[in-house]
Amino acid sequence: MPAKKRCQMQSEPRCNQAVLRLVGQCPHCRLEFCGTHRMPEHHDCQNLESCRQQAFEKNKAKLESERTVASKMAMA
What we know:
32% of the residues lie in helices and 0% in strands. By secondary structure, it is mostly helical. This is AN1-type domain-containing protein. Keywords: Metal-binding, Zinc, Zinc-finger.
């Protein structure tokens, strides 16, 4: 039986808890973490800020495409 994968949290002291099978991999940095460190905010994910910026740009574009303009309202 292979050894259990351990949390990849880079801290002192090193976390030695087992990785969660279903939700232990961070979607941003692709590292594997235990239940305590699985959230990007808890393991200081390096790609979290770029992910937030991409989500902001996507939402901004969607809101601007749906913006109601006065000329459209006058025609209705």
